Amino acid sequence: MSGDFLKGIYNITPTPFHADGLLDLESLSRLTEFTIGAGVHGMTILGVLGEATKLTEGERDQVIATVIETANARIPICVGTSHAATDGCIAYSKRAEELGAQAVMIEPPRLTRPNNEAVRRHYLSVSGAIELPIVVQDYPPTSGVHMSADFIAGLAAESPACRWLKLEDEPTPRKVGQVLAANPDVRIFGGLGALMFLEELRHGAIGTMTGFAFPEILVDIYNRWAGGDRNGAADVFYRACALIRFESQALINLPLRKEIYRRRGAIAEATVRQPAAVVDAGTLDDLTQLLDWLGMSGRIMRS
Q: HSE on the CB side for 130, CA within 13 Å?
């Protein structure tokens, strides 16, 4: 499998809910169109920001089918299929494949006593059960598993299906270089809200998978970088850093991103399925002030 489509800007897409917490498929379709219109190279659904662990299996199918039907092959769709059990991960991955996903994203299973051999068997078992490329998600705060650069490099060498990496183990730019030094064939996406996107590109990343609610800005940075305009990419990135920093606040990054999407008209409600943190009025006012200062209020729809 070539997986050549796995590069550039993949938006980690949130799952919209109505105010009562029920799935909002109309908003999901609108958000998909909005994201495609931003010029992204692909979308990743049912990740951490997609609140995948709060969805039933039936809801997962609805989300996957809605996004893939709406995208209509205009961009590739990567589906998060992480599961605590290898059999469960295989079942999720096969179902995503059946529904038309072009790739899956999988974090290592949380283990009572993490060890490389158990993680290795998990990924090899899934890669042997499906025909899709696998994006290995390296985010220890969520998985509780630390994968060394050598382990990641070895896994990619043993299973070419696992040579894509979503690297979120800080400091990310340094680890990008370490993984590529160990195996130049690994294809690395950054993440973490794009906080270190420019530095990740400098160290050899092929793009980023993140939920930043202004994906068109990341597309602009990437296109400038890929086109050789490194100074232009830096200018756009460093100006955007004020908003990237604000949006990446711990505990409230998801509701903040949903609020931005709501203000941009991409979804009807900023609802996060409970239990979840709530953004206070003062923080929302801070967001308004920041958007005004950056001259980005024009990208916000008026109600």
A: 30
Torsion 222-106-81-25 (CA) sign: negative
Residue 265 and residue 78: Cα distance in Å, rounded? 24
pTM of the shown model: 0.96
Q: How many residues does the chain have?
A: 303
**Contacts for 85 with CB less than 8 Å, ≥ 6 apart:** 109
Question: Which regions of the chain does DSSP assign to beta strands (E)?
Answer: 8-12, 42-45, 77-80, 103-106, 134-138, 164-167, 187-190, 207-210
Q: What are 195-220's pLDDT values in tens digits?
A: 999 999 999 999 999 999 999 999 99
- Report the distance separating Cα 147 and Cα 59, nearest Å: 31
Give pLDDT tens digits for 229-255: 999 999 999 999 999 999 999 999 999
- For 40, phi then psi, to 5°, come to -65, 160
